[in-house]
Amino acid sequence: MNKIISHIKAQKNASQPLVCLTAYTSPIAKILDKHCDILLVGDSLGMVLYGMENTLGVSMDMMINHGLAVTRSTNNACIVVDMPYGSYERSKEEAYKNAKRIIDETSCHAVKLEGGADMSETIAYIVERYIPVMAHIGLQPQSVVIEGGYKVKGRDDASISKLISDAKAVENAGAFSVVIEGTIENVARDLSKAINIPTIGIGASADCDGQILVTDDMLGLLSDHTPKFVKKYANLATEIDKAAANYSKEVKSRTFPNEDYTY
Ligand code: KIV
């Protein structure tokens, strides 16, 4: 049985942080499931899988198709699916309708949306209708165009007090956890102390109740710019490159397929 929301909430201030990664496809979800408390079907899939420049072009259908692939392939982790840009900002009613569609069509456990105090009414509206919501504050990738880039938060007093009021607002609205992205170290510590729901950090230091990375980043599959906070636990791009070069050589020399691989 997959980890349920109450299990995640109970990990606030636990001795071991929550282990979270992104997953978008069945084979990867199957491998990661037993290692993770939360698997996020993140809208980062727009860049990682579809070669988009940012997450703004990701659709509801994309999130639902990948969400379903992941829920079909897992039985341990709590599965959270991102609400894509444009699916929740216009009104709380539309946000609920789209959150319900994601839950109904993927059987995931929760949805995630970006925003703090500005989204608290929407979060409350969805949660009051029994859909668990993970919030996402700090650096919000869906704001990349309006912000003119991916900007680290918490560098001055105004930014720190906005982060603290955002964290409190999403907690009061009923979010069961909150992703904190791209903040300087002591801010994550203050945020984690200020609220009673688990904080999941990405580029936000070890002072969070859990950590998340984009799986393709930590596996060394993405050749473009790697952010400072990403540790590469493997270098799969090199492995794949080597395997493809070997295959190419063997096909061209007719050494593959030999009799071992022939009926
Ligand atoms: O879309 C995503 O992968 C995310 C993580 C970076 C938290 O939101």
- Level-2 CATH architecture of the largest domain: Alpha-Beta Barrel
CATH class of the largest domain: Alpha Beta
CATH fold type of the largest domain: TIM Barrel
Mean pLDDT across every amino acid position = 96
Bin the strand percentage: 5-15%
Query: Would you list the SSEs in sequence order as H and E?
Result: HEHEHHEHEHEHHEHEEHH
Number of helices: 11
Query: In the CATH hierarchy, what is the superfamily of the largest domain?
Result: Phosphoenolpyruvate-binding domains
Strand order of the largest sheet: 1-2-3-4-5-6-7-8
Describe this protein's structure:
It is a single chain. This protein has 263 residues and is of the alpha/beta class. It folds into 2 domains: 2-232, Phosphoenolpyruvate-binding domains (TIM Barrel); 235-263, no CATH class. Helix content is 40%, strand content 14%. It has helices at residues 5-9, 26-32, 45-48, 60-72, 92-106, 120-128, 144-147, 157-173, 185-194, 215-218, 236-252, and strands spanning 18-22, 38-41, 78-82, 110-114, 133-138, 177-181, 199-202, 210-213. An 8-stranded parallel β-barrel has the order 1-2-3-4-5-6-7-8, surrounded by 5 helices. The longest helix is centred in the middle third of the chain and has 17 residues, at 157-173. It is globular. Bound molecules: 3-methyl-2-oxobutanoic acid. 3-methyl-2-oxobutanoic acid binds next to loops.
